[in-house]
UniProtKB/TrEMBL annotation:
<keyword id="KW-0547">Nucleotide-binding</keyword>
<keyword id="KW-0812">Transmembrane</keyword>
<comment type="subunit">
    <text>The complex is composed of two ATP-binding proteins (LsrA), two transmembrane proteins (LsrC and LsrD) and a solute-binding protein (LsrB).</text>
</comment>
<feature type="domain" description="ABC transporter">
    <location>
        <begin position="260"/>
        <end position="498"/>
    </location>
</feature>
<feature type="transmembrane region" description="Helical">
    <location>
        <begin position="606"/>
        <end position="626"/>
    </location>
</feature>
<comment type="similarity">
    <text>Belongs to the ABC transporter superfamily. AI-2 autoinducer porter (TC 3.A.1.2.8) family.</text>
</comment>
<feature type="transmembrane region" description="Helical">
    <location>
        <begin position="810"/>
        <end position="827"/>
    </location>
</feature>
<dbReference type="InterPro" id="IPR050107">
    <property type="entry name" value="ABC_carbohydrate_import_ATPase"/>
</dbReference>
<dbReference type="InterPro" id="IPR017871">
    <property type="entry name" value="ABC_transporter-like_CS"/>
</dbReference>
<dbReference type="Pfam" id="PF02653">
    <property type="entry name" value="BPD_transp_2"/>
</dbReference>
<dbReference type="Pfam" id="PF00005">
    <property type="entry name" value="ABC_tran"/>
</dbReference>
<dbReference type="GO" id="GO:0005524">
    <property type="term" value="F:ATP binding"/>
</dbReference>
<dbReference type="InterPro" id="IPR003439">
    <property type="entry name" value="ABC_transporter-like_ATP-bd"/>
</dbReference>
<dbReference type="InterPro" id="IPR003593">
    <property type="entry name" value="AAA+_ATPase"/>
</dbReference>
<feature type="transmembrane region" description="Helical">
    <location>
        <begin position="783"/>
        <end position="804"/>
    </location>
</feature>
<feature type="transmembrane region" description="Helical">
    <location>
        <begin position="638"/>
        <end position="656"/>
    </location>
</feature>
<feature type="transmembrane region" description="Helical">
    <location>
        <begin position="525"/>
        <end position="543"/>
    </location>
</feature>
């Protein structure tokens, strides 16, 4: 049943969307939708997952361009809205999945997302940023890396960014889904303050109670179409639900388990303790669902991870009469994480692959997986859960949040688990999908498989669970049964507890207690500090074996080699920071030397020499432009694009010279080998380049955009980073620095040799990885890459002074890059536990 569409004077609307339509691959996401929001009102936007709510707001924020329709802001027609323009017009959006950059600090996230004017005249930036996050309820340090924050804290950071703009239009997309009641109350207070100042608020939610508590008007979308607009006070919940799902809703929760004498106990938690929880006990009968309640961050998630075997615990867990260890639970339990994007799904894989990955043994025929059996079985499970997708081979990221959660559940069911553990299973899920999830959990429990559910929604636990354990500061402060399971009793038990556990440190407290030392260990400069120590120790050892190691001649020779490699490694760092790689830097350096060998000769006038160097620079920039264009516009992978240039440049080198020739001018070599004592001037120039690039990386938006692109491309796009331009310019900068390396390499080779240069590709990657730059992008330093270059050359030089064969050079290189990759990978995982 559709309801009336309320007529509103759109001429006074601060934001007006008229006749908006948007399709993806021929599938309509929005069809002729009109929406407006007035100054000083909260306008709720409701609908099932996939109804088009987020798409409509992405249009309003400039992230998505509509196929048809018009956008007006303050009555002015906007022809092409971008995220940057939307921000300038005063439109801020808090996304359901926060647009935060995990590899950057809280402060850097704020500086990248907010215009510089926000910080001007406000005193020290870090102090003002701290005041901003405190106003939103975020207690972390502004220097903390965002990937160390909990899901709730990331949402608070997203809210901070939006409110800091003092926006004219504030879009809140499921802002309370992961938040505790204290944070929700604080957010609602901030929203009411903004509304009182005249801000127009668009509030997207699945929670009817929040609509009643906060909103003035409500708009409902279904299947991408407008179904109704009304004053909140003039429409009932039943009418809203009917508009949302297109049918009359029955009971929200399925019937609870009916106890009978003699029912067996199929789950026992006997005094289990772990990191974040202590001495939790429960005995659950077959058919019952165990709920875990409490204010967010009080040990619920840690407890569920222990029950699922993901974290170690002490005490006993008995499932179906069998006591299980952590490793056994890890094999037998199906875990549904709260953060489905990070922990629950592989977003680049298909729906079928995500659902089947935990059950591949079921589909095995002989030594291979039967594709037919997999497709039939997975398809039947997806159909039973009513997953809405174009096909099983659709990328899972294209599904709505509710359907993504159903895919996570399908994987759990296909794995035929002994126990199901669900952390916030309906977070960000619409009312229709919630009913399906409740039904599935109840059916799983009735089949004899224990089900444990943690939820921040006390009403959900009241309607779904047969037994509820309430957590506070890691303690089980109460167990509610039967009629005692009410929203009031659950909240009362959680907020009135006085429990303290000195030996349990919760995740929220660990973040709040971060220290300068811990932030340094988590930061990008820790690998650099380690390299300095290794370089000094290795140097001392070599000197103890051969005193000529510190002779002026050897210092000069080593630093000249470092200079050539260092410039190329700085360029490689840029490519890796954006999540790419450049395999062409070695052949490019060699090719440029060959080109220079035709111009930089003793018999050539100065003008010709200058022209040759200019040509080398132009060719380098052109190479970077081709690499970046192939990747961004040709849709090549970084490896495929740069490998293509690798082969092409190497071939061109041999076309120009099939053997070494064209001696480099002695005057040019003399200039490049100028020294101050034993230190080459070009090495000092390299240090200057490193310092300037490092400052740009940390203090300017150029560097933030590089790291943001490599950290999370989609989040970077949503905060206004032009990804295409950033990537293309990054590869051009990489090639420009390879040109600098080629200038030094010319003095070392002394002749145009087409076979030289190729080895610098692997050497540059080795140096950069040694310096701590992540192969996944987003993290790294130019200082580390310089130190990595020094260590690599030092190791190669050591083989000479220690009387080792050339074979040891390759062994040492391989060992160095292996140790670095393993060490930094392990350290990166452990840093999260130190926060």
């Amino acid at each position: 049943m559709d309801t009336q569409i309320e007529e509103v004077d759109t001429s006074v609307a601060v934001l007006s969307l008229t006749g908006i339509s948007k399709s993806y691959s021929g599938v309509a996401a929005l069809t002729d939708v009109s929406f407006d929001v007035l100054p000083g009102e909260v306008h709720a936007l409701l609908g099932e997952n996939g109804a088009g709510k987020s798409t409509l707001m992405n249009v309003a924020s400039g992230t998505v361009q509509p196929d048809d329709g018009s956008i007006r802001v303050n009555g002015e027609q906007i022809d092409s809205l971008s995220p940057a323009l939307a921000a300038r017009l005063g439109i801020a959006i808090v996304h359901q999945h926060p647009a935060v950059l995990p590899d950057m600090s809280i402060l850097e996230n704020l500086q990248l997302a907010l215009p510089a004017s926000v910080f001007q005249g406000k005193g020290p930036i870090d102090e003002y940023a701290t005041s901003l996050i405190r106003e939103s309820g975020l207690t972390a340090h502004v220097g903390d890396r965002v990937d160390s924050l909990s899901v709730a804290q990331k949402h608070l950071l997203e809210i901070t960014k939006a409110l800091a703009l003092d926006p004219k239009v504030l879009v809140l997309d499921e802002p309370t889904a992961p938040l505790g009641q204290d944070s929700v109350d604080l957010l609602f207070g901030r929203v009411r303050e903004a509304v009182a100042r005249g801000t127009a608020v668009v509030y997207i939610t699945h929670r009817m109670a929040e609509v009643r508590q906060l909103a003035d008007r409500v708009t409902v979308l279904r299947d991408g179409k407008l179904r109704g607009v009304a004053e909140v006070d003039e429409v009932t919940d039943d009418e809203l639900l009917t508009m949302i799902v297109g049918r009359q809703m029955e009971s929200t929760f399925p019937p609870k388990y009916t106890a009978a004498d003699g029912d067996e106990i199929n789950l026992v938690l006997d005094g289990i303790s772990g990191d974040g929880f202590v001495d939790v006990s429960a005995a659950v009968k077959r058919g019952e669902i165990l709920g875990i309640a409490g204010v967010v961050g009080n040990g619920q998630s840690e407890l569920l991870r222990g029950i699922a075997g993901l974290d170690s615990f002490t005490g006993r867990i008995v499932v179906g009469g069998t006591e299980m260890t952590s490793s056994q639970l890890l094999e037998e339990a199906a875990y549904l994480p709260a953060d489905r994007h990070t922990e629950g799904l592989m977003m680049s894989l298909t729906v079928r692959e995500n659902a089947a990955v935990a059950a591949l043994k079921r589909f095995k025929r002989w030594a291979l997986v039967s594709n037919k059996l997999e497709v039939d079985t997975v398809g039947a499970t997806l159909d039973s859960l009513e997953v809405k997708a174009a096909s099983m081979d659709s990328v899972v990221s294209s599904l709505s949040g509710g359907n993504q959660q159903k895919v996570v559940m399908a994987r759990a069911l296909l794995s035929q688990p002994s126990i199901v553990v669900a952390d916030e299973p309906t977070q960000g899920v619409d009312v229709g999908a919630r009913l399906e999830i409740y039904r599935i959990l109840r059916e799983v429990s009735a089949s004899g498989i224990p089900v444990v559910v943690a939820s921040s929604d006390a009403k959900e636990l009241e309607g779904l669970c047969d037994q509820v354990v309430v957590m506070s500061r890691g303690n089980a402060v109460g167990t509610l049964l039967g009629d005692d399971i009410t929203e009031t009793r659950i909240v009362q038990s959680a907020v009135t507890s006085t429990a303290h556990t000195a030996n349990v440190q919760l995740a929220s407290e660990r973040v709040a207690r971060s220290t300068p030392f811990r932030r340094f260990i988590q930061g990008d400069y820790a690998p650099s500090a380690l390299l300095v120590g290794v370089i000094l120790v290795l140097g001392a050892f070599i000197f103890s074996q051969n005193v000529r190691y510190l002779s002026d001649f050897n210092i000069f020779s080593v630093l000249m080699l470092v200079s050539a490699l260092g410039f190329i490694a700085l360029g490689q760092t840029i490519s890796l920071l954006i999540g790419g790689i450049d395999l062409s830097v070695g052949p490019l350096a060699g090719f440029l030397v060959v080109v220079g060998s035709f111009f930089v000769n003793d018999d050539k006038p100065l003008g010709v020499v200058g022209l040759g160097i200019l040509l080398m620079f132009v060719l380098a920039i052109a190479t970077g432009l081709i690499n970046g264009s192939l990747i961004r516009f040709g849709k090549f992978t970084a490896i495929a694009a740069t490998l293509t240039l690798y082969i092409a440049l190497q071939g061109l080198s041999f076309l120009l010279r099939d053997s070494p020739g064209g001696y480099i001018a002695a005057g040019y070599t003399a200039v490049l080998t100028t020294r101050v004592g034993p230190v080459p001037v070009i090495f000092i120039v390299l240090i200057a380049f490193t310092v300037v690039l490092e400052l740009l990386l940390r203090k300017r938006k150029w560097g933030w955009r590089l790291r943001a692109t490599g950290s999370d491309e989609e989040a970077a796009r949503r905060v206004g980073v032009n990804i295409d331009r950033t990537v293309v310019f990054a590869y051009m900068a990489t090639s420009a620095l390879a040109f600098c390396g080629a200038l030094v390499l010319m003095t070392q080779i002394g002749v145009g040799d087409p076979a030289q240069g190729v080895s610098y590709t692997l050497s540059s990657i080795t140096a950069v990885v040694l310096g701590g730059t992540s192969l996944l992008g987003g993290r790294g330093t130019f200082v580390g890459s310089l130190l990595g270059s020094i260590l690599l050359i030092q190791v190669l030089n050591a083989t000479t002074f220690l009387g080792l064969t050339q074979m040891w050079q390759y062994i040492f290189q391989g060992v160095l890059i292996l140790v670095a990759a393993v060490f930094y990978s392990v350290a990166r995982r452990r840093r999260k536990t130190l926060v």
